[in-house]
Amino acid sequence: MEKSNQQKNKEHYEKAYQKYSIKNILWKINHLDFFLDKAIKTETSWHGLYMHDFASQLKGKKILELGCGDCTNAAVMAQLGAEVWANDIADTPGKIIEEVNSQQGFDKPMRFIPGDFLKNELPDQSFDFIVGKAFLHHLEIEEERLFLKECARLLKPEGEARFFEPAVNNKLLDELRWYTPLPGRRPSKWTPKKFRAWKEQDPHPDRTFSSSHFEKAGKEFFEKAEIYPVGSLERFHQLLPARKPINNRYRQWAFRNEKYLPNFINRSFARSQLIIYFQPKHHNLKK
Ligand SMILES: C[S@@+](CC[C@H](N)C(=O)[O-])C[C@H]1O[C@@H](n2cnc3c(N)ncnc32)[C@H](O)[C@@H]1O
């Protein structure tokens, strides 16, 4: 029997998180200014999720993180003063949260909601923010719709849902990407057999990642959707040698400068995007 998308993700990530390092997370949150500043300047997902000075908005806020993964971001948000609730389909993040809580002694310890989040029994309008860092694109479209509906139910009227996700708005660039080999990470389409074998165990469903899809999907349950393209220049860092200072310097330069490009170029070339949904349509949740 073919595995469900959820099962495939759970198995894949349970394995990926086996070698988690509490020491590493603790180091990051205890050197928070240094870690976050560097991550925001050079790492796409941190750069995207923390756009518009997100870090300064978190103190005292109640936040839900979906697909919390290795829990680094959940711990960062807790260290910034938020009350953090987190969910992941894999169970290991629950253990990580327990261990970080016991070693860090947050004023408000993080809470983990295990298993299928759509079965949660949290009360309406519980959260100020809901965030996902590279999460929505792991869902099939109908599953995503149910998650967005749940986000609208769980957010306060002034609340905001914020997702950092990949963007594919240009078919040609996307195809070129699949033909670019990433040694040690994935084979390219130049080696079709290896590529197919890789694809079979890849936990990403075949679905759209276009900005217009995310705009439309959000507007069913939110009055406003804003999309910020990320990585139109930064994406080319993959052409430079990995883990070399020149790569980091290029990324910093690219993030600083790509925002000056016209929006239509940014949108077409973006590798990722920050999606923000505001004003949940609480009256629209019966459907
Ligand atoms: C690409 S990882 C991102 C992890 C983390 N947010 C980060 O930035 O490192 C995607 C995460 O989503 C989780 N995930 C996938 N499908 C899920 C679902 N249906 N419900 C909850 N979590 C899910 C995976 O287990 C994985 O931890």
From TrEMBL:
Database matches in InterPro entries: Methyltransf_11, SAM-dependent_MTases_sf
UniProtKB keywords: Methyltransferase, Transferase
UniProt xrefs under Pfam families: Methyltransf_11
Protein name: Class I SAM-dependent methyltransferase
Organismal lineage: Bacteria, Pseudomonadati, Bacteroidota, Flavobacteriia, Flavobacteriales
Keyword Transmembrane helix: no
GO BP of this protein: methylation
GO molecular function ontology, one term from the record: S-adenosylmethionine-dependent methyltransferase activity
Ranges of residues in domain Methyltransferase type: 64-160
